[in-house]
Amino acid sequence: MQVAHQVLVLAHLIGFAALLGGVLSQGRAGQPEVTGTMLWGGCVELATGVALVVLTVVTGGPVDWGPATVKLVTTLFLVLLLVRNRRFLSIPRGLWALIGGLALVSAGLSVLWQ
């Protein structure tokens, strides 16, 4: 189970990297957009985060439900923003900044709130 946990953490980090990389690559664009990489990264981050909690519950490990719930809500909101705005050719700068900020908050919650 330890290997499964480590693989899920690696996939979670890859999803974050794809999401943040997509956000940063749109920073210099005249009209930023939600790219497939950003959407894919957000979905991977959401799925692996849920899988990590499920794996912890199944193995009988302790789950701190407060941080897990806040992280789930934050990431779910982020993914919903990405899905909703994927169809547009461009998004406002404020929305682009919100997506980037939520990606960083999501990572911060994962690492710092334990």
Describe what you observe in this structure.
The protein is mainly α. It has one domain (2-112). Helix content is 77%, strand content 0%. It is built from 4 helices and no strands. The chain is elongated, with a radius of gyration of 15 Å. 27% of the residues are buried.
Salient structural properties:
0% strand; 114 residues; 4 helices; mainly alpha
In short:
With 114 residues, the chain is mainly alpha-helical. Helices cover 77% and strands 0% of the residues. The chain is built from 4 helices and no strands.
Number of helices: 4
Radius of gyration: 15 Å
Residue fraction in strands: under 5%
Structure summary, number of beta strands: 0
Question: Structural class of the secondary structure composition?
Answer: mainly alpha
Order of helices and strands: HHHH
Summarize the main sheet.
Answer: none
Total individual domains:
1
The portion of residues assigned to helices is: over 70%
Shape: elongated
Q: Determine the oligomeric state from the structure.
A: single chain
Spell out the blueprint of helices and strands.
Blueprint: H1 2-25, H2 36-58, H3 65-85, H4 93-112
Helix pairs in contact: 1-2, 1-4, 2-3, 3-4
